[in-house]
TrEMBL record:
Species assigned in the record: Hwanghaeella grinnelliae
Cross-referenced PANTHER family: HTH-TYPE TRANSCRIPTIONAL REGULATOR YODB, TRANSCRIPTIONAL REGULATOR, MARR FAMILY
PROSITE patterns in the cross-refs: HTH_HXLR
Record-linked SUPFAM superfamilies: Winged helix' DNA-binding domain (SSF46785)
Lineage summary: Bacteria, Pseudomonadati, Pseudomonadota, Alphaproteobacteria, Rhodospirillales
Keywords: DNA-binding, Transcription, Transcription regulation
Record's protein name: Transcriptional regulator
Molecular function via GO: DNA binding
Domain HTH hxlR-type: 13-112
Length: 138
């Protein structure tokens, strides 16, 4: 087996590759907050509602940037801060997000299940995905 740039073994499996890019809870939630909620700053991502810690958020943003899913630029209004945005590669996860949302809507029957985004996907999945791909909040 050969090693990839992330120093993990590459089996060639497409599922394993995807999981290396975005395969933990926090990474997918950061991507969700950027794609669906329009979060662009560290504080907006930190306040995503899931209770991510600052060290985990910093680590995941660095990983996402290294993997080419997120770009980081200086905030023109506050040069001490940064703005984060999904790259084309990150925005191309729109169908994956839509599918996860639909799957969760089918199986999450808890009283606290959030359904606003689910309804958006059900009403207009292609529009939902296109919004994300265009960098807009669906």
């Amino acid at each position: 087996m050969k090693k990839n740039t992330n120093q993990t073994y590459d089996t060639g499996c497409p599922v394993a590759f995807a999981l290396r890019m975005f395969g933990d809870q926090w990474t997918l939630l950061v991507i969700r907050d950027m794609a669906v909620k329009g979060a662009r700053t560290y504080s907006e991502l930190l306040d995503g509602g899931e209770g991510i810690s600052t060290n985990i958020l910093a680590q995941r943003l660095k990983q996402l940037e290294e993997n080419g899913l997120v770009s980081k630029t200086r905030d023109p209004e506050n040069w001490r801060s940064f703005l984060y945005a999904l790259t084309d590669k990150g925005r191309d996860l729109a169908p994956v997000l839509a599918e996860i949302i639909l799957w969760s809507g089918k199986y999450n029957h808890g009283d606290n299940a959030m359904t606003d985004t689910l309804q958006k996907v059900r009403r207009d999945r292609s529009g939902f995905e296109e919004s994300i791909r265009n960098g807009a909040v669906p």
